[in-house]
Amino acid sequence: MTGQEALPGVQSIDRAMALLSVFTTSRPVVGVSELARATGLARGTAHRLVTALVSHGLLAHVPDTTSYCLGPRLLGLAEVARQQLSLEAQAGPVMAWLRDRCTETVGLHVLDELPSRRTVAQAESPHPLRRTYTDLGAPIPPHQGAPGKLLLAFADYQLCQRVLDGPLPAADGTGKVEAPELAAELDEIRQNGFALSLEGRVPGVVSMAVPVRDHQSEVRAALSISIPSVRAGREELLALVPLAREAAEDLSHRLGHTTAVKSRST
User: Fold this and answer.
1) What is the pLDDT of residues 132-183, one digit of tens each?
2) Please, where are the H alpha helices in the chain?
3) CATH 1.10.10.10 for the 85-254 domain, yes or no
4) Residue 115: phi, psi to the nearest 5?
5) Which architecture characterizes domain 10-80 according to CATH?
6) What is the arithmetic mean of pLDDT over 23-30?
């Protein structure tokens, strides 16, 4: 058998997956003829596969119609997948992979509804002089620092506007951030796909952050690299963007983001 020949049964699995992939949030109910057209299968072949999928609970017949929807067995499978593909379960190996290649501290950050930015995990640099997060889980104003601004830039419009309309104290406590300047910076972050901070929140620390997306392509978290400013500045941070993006794409892939690259850190 050559490498181009399919293993027994693989073609049927490929066809079944093609049928299941036709169902989307905008097209939750589909008939056999439409399934056949969408997948390029003969109607008879599509009907046989649909019947098999129904028997396994992967599809279900919609009452009083000739159409089908995704089946109840997928709910149980999705819950198992959700537990194993959670951000917390998947981030560790990716963060270690990135830390080992940049040799600097890697952080994982999320945005809550307060709204505030919270650092939920870190992979510390091996250098004696390094950035260490001593405030894991603590709420931090999202307009301060690269991870928070990255998350804010890709947040829901109303949540972002709440921040822009509210108080914007500077990190050093001596002034405030101007809303128009912050809005312009968030626009730039959206265009560039990354955020930089040159001692913007913690004196002596520079950082950059990139987005992590989930199965719905929503930005779920920020992955950051933080470095003592004596070792890095803007140019060094920019040079790390491709590596950080590779790690973020890996983690996004693990969370079900289908356009991300194949996992590299296992």
Assistant:
1) 999 899 999 999 999 999 999 999 999 999 999 999 999 888 889 999 999 9
2) 10-21, 32-39, 43-55, 73-84, 87-102, 146-153, 157-165, 179-192, 234-254
3) no
4) -95, 150
5) Orthogonal Bundle (1.10)
6) 92
